[in-house]
Amino acid sequence: MARRNDHSKEELAELVIDATRHLVDELGPGRVTARKIADRIGYTPGTLYQRFANLNDIFLHVNAVNLAQLETQLGAAAASAETPIDAVLEMGYAYLNYAASHPNRFALMFTSHVPHGEDAPGHVQERVDALFALVTQQMSVIWPEADAETLELRARALWSGVHGVASLSVRDQLFTRHWQADRKMLNELITRFLR
Amino acid sequence: MARRNDHSKEELAELVIDATRHLVDELGPGRVTARKIADRIGYTPGTLYQRFANLNDIFLHVNAVNLAQLETQLGAAAASAETPIDAVLEMGYAYLNYAASHPNRFALMFTSHVPHGEDAPGHVQERVDALFALVTQQMSVIWPEADAETLELRARALWSGVHGVASLSVRDQLFTRHWQADRKMLNELITRFLR
DNA sequence: CAGAATATTAAACAATGTTCATTTAATCAA
DNA sequence: TTGATTAAATGAACATTGTTTAATATTCTG
Fold this sequence. Notes:
- By secondary structure, chain A is an all-alpha fold.
- In chain A, 73% of the residues lie in helices and 0% in strands.
- The relative contact order of chain A is 0.11.
- Chain A binds a DNA duplex through residues 1-5, 9, 12, 33-35, 43-50, 54-55.
C-alpha cells in the first residue's frame, strides 16, 4: 500500500491533531505515542513526520487548539457576569473547571515538558496573550484611571495566581481535604486582590 | 565483576539520589535516564532497581530532598524579615529565586509527570505541608483573630498564587518583556492580598 | 499512455525502562 | 582454614519508544 489520496494535507493534519487530542485525554500526555496516533487514524508512524517535525510539534498544535477552546469558555463566563469583579470570578471558576474536567489537556499545556522552540506555532503565544487580555479588559473597567502597564501587570499577577490554584489542584498538591478547597481559595484570592 | 562492597545500602541510595539530582540540574528531568545515573556512580542500571522500585521512585526521593532544601531557604528568608508582611514577601522572592536558579529541579517537583503513588515517600506530603505552614504562621501574626481553618485557606490561596507566578515564569509563559516582571507581579499579588 | 512526482509504507536504528539468570565476592559455620 | 551459604552486582535480554529512509504504489502531468 502506498499513496492512497484518502485525505488532503490539511485533512490529515487535522486528523492527527484530533486523534492526539483524544489520546491525551484518554491516556495522559506521557502515554501518547507516535504509533498509537498513527494506529487511530489508520496510517503508519512515518506519515506523521511529513506533516509535523516530531511528536512535540504535534503536541504544540494540540495545545493551540485547547487554548482556543479554553479562551472561548472564559469569554463566555465573563459575558454572563454582571459586574467586572464577577466576570473575573467567573472566569476563574471556568479556568478551574476546565482544569478539573480535562486534567490531561491542562497538563499538556502547563505541566508537561513541551518546549516551545522556534518551529512552534506562533498561535500558542497569541492564545495566551488573548487569555490575559480577557482579564486585563475587566480590570480596565475596575480601575479606569490605571495606565496600560499597570493593568497588564495586575492582570498577569492575578491570573498567575488563578493558574497556580488550578495547577496545584489538578496535581493534588494542595494537600487539604476541605470540600471544594480550590474554589474557596480562588474566591479568596480574587476578591482580596480586586477589593 | 560482582558484589564489591564499595558502599552500604544507604550509601548507595544516597549516591543514586545525589547523582540524579545533579543530572536533573544539568539535563532537565526528561533527559535523565537510568543508564546515565548508573554511569555516573559507577554501577550498572540493574543495581538501581534493588534499592528503588523504578526511575519514578528515584525522582520522588530527589523531590523530597529538594523540597527540604527549599523549605530551609524559605525559613531563612522569613527569619530575616522585620514584619510578617515582609516575611511573606521575602519568602515569595526566595521561592521565585529558587525556581529561577534551579528551573529543572522546580520542573521535576511541579511541572513533570511524576505521579506520587502509594510507594511514594511520605516525606513529600510532609514537606509540602511544612511549606504551607511557614506561610500560615506569618498569617496568624497578621490576623490574630482568624480561626485555623481560615488561616489555612488563606495561606494556601496566597501561596498557590505565588506558585503560579513562579511556574509560569520558569516556563516563560508569562509572555511579557517587562524587566523583572515576575518580581513585580509577586509584589503586587502579595501586598494586595495581605493589605 | 509513458514518465515524473509524491504520498505512504515497511523496515531499520539507536535508545529507553525494566527484568532476571548468572557470576562473583563477602559472610558464616565448622 | 576451609567449605557452604548468602547477597550484591552484572550483563544480557526484552518490548517499546521516537525518528529516518529506501522502496513502493498511486496519482498527476505532458
